[in-house]
From TrEMBL:
Transmembrane segments: none annotated. Pfam families: OsmC (PF02566). It comes from Psychroserpens algicola. This is OsmC family protein. InterPro entries: KH_dom-like_a/b, OsmC/Ohr_fam, OsmC/Ohrsf.
Amino acid sequence: MSHKVVTHWKGNLQFESDNPSGKLLTMDTSSEHGGHNSGLRPKAMMLSSLAGCSGLDVVSILKKMKVPFSDFRIDTYGELTDEHPKYYHTVLVEYHFYGANLDETKIKKAVDLSIDTYCGVMEMFRRFADVKTSIHYHNV
């Protein structure tokens, strides 16, 4: 399987990129770097891709396990190198689950399956960054 993404310059430092789903997104940079701050930043989108990939896995697995939760969020932090080309050398992924009587054992299993087996973006990140993960349970 392969993907094709077309990215089109829209003027100044703004670009519009499509996705195999047909959806569009705008990328730009801050005004301090010459942009208009009108879109998403490319490097930060990589962190969003990591969280989205793993999140899709986790929710799908928990649904199959019939594990209830009321809310779920992933906080992803990336530390960039000081020298160019700047890339994320260290990444922290925090999984936050909310609900009454959370099944911590099954949730941990779902997260571990995503991290170790299913999330291709996680595997890509491991090729260039030290990736650390943690799970936080918020029983409400």
